[in-house]
Amino acid sequence: MVRAMPARQLWAFLSERDVEDLIAKIAAREPGLSVSSGRYLRGEPRALLEDPQSLERRESLPNERRIYLLHRKYSADIVTHLMPAGPFAGWSQIDEERTDCLVLALRTAGASELEPAKLYAQVNFWRSADKVRKRPMFTIWASQILKWAATQLPPTSSRMLRIGSDALAKAKAGEVKLTYLYRPIAPEP
């Protein structure tokens, strides 16, 4: 099976405050955003859209956190898979390829380090030899959010890596070191 690549993705250094600010700004663009953390869940999958707080959630990997952004108007498909065995037996895993969602994947580094987060969306995927495209309404919304988010975050010394305002202030003050692939990144061009 060939894995699909995200149609669009944004890499950015984000502090916890930047994550909260970015999500709040996305929610303010159009009412209906649903925010849910953790790749595994217990409960009715449709609750991801309607009442994510009612779900029991767990992360899949140590030092990584995922936040799922779904929209009541644009997220029609929610696909999960029940785990039959292993440490997550009885839990359902969100299928990121087939679920209409944006994913914010955050890496946990040391207290004085910050690694870039990745905001992405899958807009098509492969099943056997067939390329399946998601609904245009979701694809358009996800692309617009990712393009808009890039305008909200200034670039670092590496043009592909953006930075949140709080992370920028902390990096300039020497409170955090920005790293990508074990290399230091300057907070400004």
Write up this protein.
The model is unreliable at 1-5 (pLDDT under 50). The termini are far apart. This protein is 23% helix and 32% strand. The protein contains four helices and 15 strands. The chain has 189 residues and is of the alpha+beta class. The protein has one domain (8-184). It has helices spanning 16-29, 47-50, 136-152, 165-172; strands at residues 8-13, 33-37, 40-42, 56-58, 64-71, 80-82, 92-94, 102-107, 113-114, 117-121, 124-127, 130-133, 161-163, 177-180, 183-184. The strands form four sheets. Strands 2-5-8-10-1-13 form a six-stranded mixed beta sheet. Strands 4-3-7-6 form a four-stranded antiparallel beta sheet, with no helix packed on it. The protein is globular, with a radius of gyration of 17 Å.
In short:
The chain has 189 residues and is of the alpha+beta class. The protein has helices spanning 16-29, 47-50, 136-152, 165-172; strands at 8-13, 33-37, 40-42, 56-58, 64-71, 80-82, 92-94, 102-107, 113-114, 117-121, 124-127, 130-133, 161-163, 177-180, 183-184. It is built from 4 helices and 15 strands.
Q: What structural category arises from helix and sheet content?
A: alpha+beta
The rounded distance between the terminal residues' Cα atoms is: 40 Å
Strand percentage lies at 25-35%
E-strand count: 15
Mean pLDDT metric: 91
Order of helices and strands: EHEEHEEEEEEEEEHEHEE
Lateral strand order in the biggest sheet: 2-5-8-10-1-13
Unreliable spans are 1-5
Shape: globular
Q: Compute the number of structural domains.
A: 1
* Biggest sheet character: 6 strands, mixed
Radius of gyration: 17 Å
**Helical coverage, percent range:** 10-25%
Q: How many individual helices?
A: 4
